[in-house]
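Running this now, will post back.
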Amino acid sequence: MMKPETRLYALLTLMGSIVGGALMTQLGANAALASGHVRTLSAEQFVLLDSDGTQRAVMKVASDGTTHLAMFDGRKRDRADFRVTKDGAAAIGFYDQSGSPRVLVGASIDGRNGLAIYSTGGKQIASLAVTENNEASLTLYDPKTGMARAGLGTGPNGTPALALFDQGGADRAEIHVRTDGRGGLVLVDENNKAVRLPEPSTTTAQR
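Update: finished.
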């Protein structure tokens, strides 16, 4: 049987080992953090707080697989976020005090990339988009109805066109230039009947 003084010595030795090990682990972790040697930090969600304890940013992966970084102002209102969906679409958004979008920048998985600008009321008023086959378009919208009113674009071969729309979004006028250099003008009346102005021949256009 172990003597009482022997048991006491063994217990003190064991306690010293545990405390010493825990202390060294803590000191080692603090030293690694201070020196920037932490290589991996894993979590399902990260929350950033300000000095008052107010949540200012959250980074997490949603249940649908979307990676989401949201940043808030001092009143916990979402003002900016960065999202990447599980299938690879990405978007950056900026929002006003009411939570309505003001600027969105995105890249879809089908190759369409663009920029959208919104009015104070949350309606889209302008957009710039480029497709995978290099078609580019600039569209302006009615700030009250959100309907497209004017569009300027270029096709894959670089041919430009300008289109004007009425209050209902119907095409009413179009100016274009073909690859051979000839220009054209098309007007559409209230009955959706197109009136195409005669295009000058190449010879006439060069005079």
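The longest strand covers residues 55-61. More later if anyone needs it.
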